Amino acid sequence: MIRIDLTTLFVSAVLYLLLLFLIAYATDRRWLPGWLIRHPAVSVLSLGVYATSWSYYGSVGFAQQQGFLFITTYLGLTLAFVLTPVLLMPILRLTRTYQLTSVADLFAFRFNSQAVGVLVTLLMLAGVLPYIALQIRAVAESTVVLTQDSSPQALAFWFVVLVSVFTIIFGARHVSPREKHEGMVVAIAFESLMKLFALLVVAAIAVYQAFGGLGGMQTWLEQNPEHLQALYEPVREGPWASLLVLAFAAGFLLPRQFHMLFTENIKPRHLYTASWAFPLYLLALTLVIPPILWAAQVLQPGTSPDYHVLGLSQLSGSPALVVLAYLGGISAASAMVVVSTLAISSMTLNHLVLPLIRPQPHRDLYDALRWARRTMIAAIIAAGYGFYMIMEPTSGLVGWGLISFLAMAQMLPGVVGLLFWPRATASGFIAGLIGGTAIWTTTALLPPLTGTSTMVWLGLAAPGAAASPAVYQSATFWSLSANVLLFVLVSLLSRPDEREREAAAVCRELTPVMPLGRLRAGSPAQFVEKLTSVMGEKAARAEVEKALRELDMRWDESRPGNLYGLRNQIQRNLSGMMGPVLARMIVDARLELDRESRTALAQNVRLIEERLETSRTRLRGLAAELDRLRRYHRQIIEDLPVGVCAIAQGGRLVRWNPAIQRLTGMPMAEIIGRRVDELPPPWGPLLVDFMDSRADHWHKQEVQRYGRSRWYSLHKAAIEEPGRGRSGDTVLLIEDLTEMQLLEQELTHSERLASIGRLAAGVAHEIGNPVTGISCLAQELREETDPALIAGHADDILQQAQRINNIVQSLVRYAHGGSTGQRVMLPVNLHETVAEATRLTMLSRRARQLAFENRIPVNLHTLADSQQMVQVFVNLFTNAADACAQDGRVVVSARRRGEWLEIVIEDNGCGIPADVQNRVLEPFFTTKQPGQGTGLGLPLVYNIIRDCGGQLDITSNDSGTAVTLRLQPADTPLTEEV
Amino acid sequence: MPQLQDQGPGTHSVLIFLLAVFLVASPFTTWWMSAAAPWYFIYALWIAIIVLTWLLARRLRRDTD
User: Fold this and answer.
1) How far apart are CA A42 and CA A186, in angstroms?
2) For A196-253, how does the pLDDT look when each residue is reduced to its tens digit (9 = 90+)?
3) Are A206 and A292 in contact (CB under 8 A)?
4) Which is it for the CA torsion A538, A539, A540, A541, positive or negative?
5) pLDDT digits (tens, 9 = 90+) for A154-169
6) Which of A82, A266, A276 to mutate to test the interface with B (most CBs of B within 10 A)?
7) Which residue in A81, A269, A290 is closest to B39 by CB distance?
8) Does A371 touch chain B if contact means CB atoms closer than 8 Å?
9) What is the rounded distance in angstroms from the CA atom of residue A497 to the CA atom of residue A508?
10) Contact A881, A888 (CB under 8 A)
11) Which residue of B lies nearest to A242 if distances are taken between CA atoms?
12) How far apart (Å, rounded) are the C-alpha atoms in residues A63 and A306?
């Protein structure tokens, strides 16, 4: 057996710890590549913090005394990790979303109770402080084993100092859990590699020394079956199942496990890798325990079974192997102390210190939190060291570990309640925890301190069982039974308040949390103002700015839905810094909601949709079917070729489909949540006017965009909430009719030109007569000498020229009437319009034989474009002329019917055949001979009348046709519903 | 097939968990421990559980990506 002097061990321990500093520093400074730092293997190895000096040294001793029971510590954890999708992932989701940094945060959040946080923290402290002391003791004892020096306190002290400094530097760098301590995580991962490597090397050399190899070991086992029996025997009689339960709980509830699994998690999918890779790591770590034990039984190193690893390394004769084995122990102990302290300090700060000393607005919040955390770290390690100083050296390494595990198991009913039982209440949880903890204290915590077993005293365990793990069978059963019973009973007897129900729903993801009222603060700047009184202006501004950045919002944000999201984000961020209860208190008090004004369903639609989108992959069964249906319906609206927008009460826009994005050029992200009147012109004023009007439809509204006219039809309808009637929300549809409008204008113009062509012969005839007259008069004028007659001829010529001029002017007006895009709706005198149309129609040969009778009162007006109205009557008169025989007669009359002005154009022609009456309004449909008509006359009449807000009706029989035009009188506003 | 789609990762992990409980925490455990199983038998069972968890995790990671 070789001995190593204390100085060598001291120097190697210090150098090893300095190496950890270097690794952490190199990681934080990004000297190590990013892919390595963020590799899932690093995350998995960092979980190796689970294996403390208990695993590293104590497993061999545990195996010697309790056989394969030692393996339960790792098998139980494996069972917990198998349930990753239903157990660990939901917890990770909660901790990431709501910035929960510890088990105490998780329960305080779920039960919305500071008392819960305090109780859990106290239990954690009671369970973990002795465990930290145990690590310090393992370092000291391992030094004694190697040096035979009886005063390893100095080394233990410096170990504590260095570990404290490491934790403070690399573990308390950030106050927000969003910023991960990557340096520390990589260093802890390195420590896991270190202890695995050391243990594997020691095991390989020991097996070689004792048996000459694995074959030799197998032969030895066959020759000495009692050694294998000794491993199996305690399992058959011992607390196998109870220890599995304890390890199951410890696997994710131990503060260090929780911290590494959830708080320092970089990517959620790393957890899936850990679900199999971490048990594999533990398997590798424990696979060598039986061979080491058997090698020690053969080689007899003379050490206590807890330190056979060191004894065997000494037997190898290699000082390097001894130092390696020793450093493996140092790594196991230091990793546990670092991470446990971090986790416990965060809990203590959030649930014991901050509720007593609230943040002061005149101090820098971040500095105060950072220093408070550092102080807590130092205090907790010091407390652990103090515990080590007074700890009885009699209890084995395993004992305190199991005591700690049993404390964690008291959280198991709470975890089940948190994830699966929304009815669980804070009172139930507290009652269960107090009951379970009381039994844990009396049966597990006190006996090692007092030396007597309460279980034996109570008659629940056999005498002599106090020092053996068998006592944990009873302790586990009774403490958990009492815990569960009280938890369930008191939960059923008590009622959760609204906030607790809300938190329970969030934990179960039953329903998205809807805003419970309207936020009083109306802008991010007002958020800062309100938070300043609690945390000071600098921190308040920084927090609001951070939340804005995370949500990709701007300082001028004013939409209530987005501000509510901002409020939640600030609450989450504060929760990460100072715990969920305090964060909620601050946010509730400063960023208060006006609970009198409940928000409408429509305003929460986006919130619901966002929640559904993020949790879509987790929906199953009917919920998944409903989600598919919802997405299908939403897609219908998205794919509609007309613009759709929904407006909630208060004029807030809640839906804006892609078609309306294209129409308006305004993207959805900028629009949703805004009020309609906040939209820029022309859309804001147009939509507001339409919303205010009584009409459900506006046809062909002209909108100027980029200096050009575009035409839109608008429709609106009230949205009904199923089963509740009208919700007060409105859906608007916007159709772009610009193409159609331009086409119609083209057609109108073509039709106009065509009718001019038809009029050409008549025009020639009409002009021909005065021209002949002028010509005759001119000839007479040439020979006339009498001044009076000359003047008379000149007057006649001028009269004839005026007649020609009138004809030409009418034609020019008619030809140019529809060519411009701009329509001016003005009062139009209908009598004059009919007279003008009559004059034009009379130019055609056929119409000249017609008798026109204009019975329209001379002072009757309608709102329309005057040239278009002339076109209407010209087209109708032309049709009448085509339909009438020699004695054709057209009567135009007017009457008021209700609020309409009815103009009836009747002829005594042959009428329209009954089989084509339904088609006369179709473009290009004509009953005339080719070349006689374009088939566009009546469709144009219909379009013009519709554009004026009027109606057209045609009745026809053998004795003639009556066309009725319903127009709006000029004294009635055009846009009002009639 | 809606029935098949309904079986989420939770169902699979619970099934593996129940199998694991059967292997390492049931009367079956007591039986194989009494039946002079080789020392590495428990590790073989453990590996089997890990492999099943790995298969499930591989699918879940792919879904997450």
Assistant:
1) 6
2) 999 999 999 999 999 998 999 999 999 998 888 888 888 877 788 889 999 999 999 9
3) yes
4) positive
5) 788 888 898 898 888 8
6) A82
7) A290
8) no
9) 16
10) yes
11) B25
12) 9
B49 interaction partners in chain A (CB closer than 8 Å): 78, 82, 279
What token pair was written down for A165? Answer: 């400094």
Instruction: Calculate how close chain B gets to A591, using CA atoms only, in Å.
Output: 35
d(CA A365, CA A707) in angstroms, rounded, equals 54
The share of chain A scoring above pLDDT 70, in percent, equals: 89
Mean pLDDT to the nearest integer, A686-711: 84
Cβ distance A78 to B65 less than 8 Å, yes or no, reads no
Residue A865 Ramachandran class (φ > 0 left, ψ -120 to 50 alpha, else beta): beta
Q: What is the pLDDT of residues A27-36, one digit of tens each?
A: 988 899 989 9
- State the average pLDDT for chain A: 84
A358, A106 Cβ separation under 8 angstroms:
no
* Residue found by looking up tokens 């004509």 in the block: A926
φ, ψ dihedrals at A901, nearest 5°: -110, 115
Q: Exposed, middle or buried, A542 (CB in 10 Å: 0-12/13-18/19+)?
A: middle
- Closest Cα partner for A775 from A791, A790, A797? A797
- Over residues A464-493, the mean pLDDT reads 82
Q: Would you call B61 an interface residue with chain A, using a CB distance cutoff of 8 Å?
A: yes
- What's the whole-number mean pLDDT along residues A518-527? 84
Question: In sequence order, what DSSP letters do the residues of A771-790 get, joined into one string?
Answer: HHHHHHHHHHHHH---HHHH
Nearest Cα neighbor of A266 from A451, A27, A560, A600 is A27
What are the CA-CA distances from residue B7 to residues A485, A718, B15, B50 (Å)? 32, 41, 11, 21
What's the rounded Cα separation, in Å, for the pair A49 and A52? Answer: 6
Q: Which pLDDT belongs to residue B27?
A: 87
A429 pLDDT higher than 80: yes
Beta carbon pairs, A and B, within 8 Å:
97
Q: pLDDT tens digits, residue range A129-154?
A: 888 988 998 888 898 888 877 677 77
Give the pLDDT of residue A433.
95
Cβ neighbours of A5 (radius 10 Å): 11
CB contact (8 A) between residue A272 and residue B61: yes
- Structure-token pair, residue A576: 């990460």
Give CA–CA dist A94/A106, Å, rounded.
8
The two three-digit tokens of residue A258, written as one number: 């929780």
The pLDDT tens digits of the residues spanning A99-129 come to 899 999 999 999 989 999 999 999 999 888 8
Provide the residue count of chain B. Answer: 65
Among candidates A184, A550, A169, which has minimal Cα distance to A370?
A169
A19: tokens are 């190496």
Of B13, B30, B52, the CB nearest to A85: B13
Q: Beta partners for A713?
A: A735
Residue A638 has pLDDT above 90, yes or no: no
Residue from B62, B55, B11, B56 nearest A621 by CA: B11
Contact residues for A678 (Cβ-Cβ < 8 A; gap 6+): A684
Q: Is A394 on the interface with B (CB under 8 A)?
A: no
A73, with CB counted inside 10 A (0-12, 13-18, 19+), is: buried
**pLDDT at residue B65, as a whole number:** 56
Give the DSSP letter of residue A536: -
pLDDT tens track for A539-548: 889 999 999 9
Q: Are A68 and A273 in contact (CB under 8 A)?
A: no
According to DSSP, the residues that pair with A960 across neighbouring strands are A957
Q: Is the predicted pLDDT of residue B9 greater than 50, yes or no?
A: yes
Cα angle: A939, vertex A940, A944; to 5 degrees? 120
Would the CB atoms of B20 and A82 count as touching at under 8 Å? yes
Q: Give pTM, 2 decimals.
A: 0.72
Q: Do B63 and A268 touch (CB under 8 A)?
A: no
Q: Note the Cα A55 to chain centre separation in Å.
A: 42
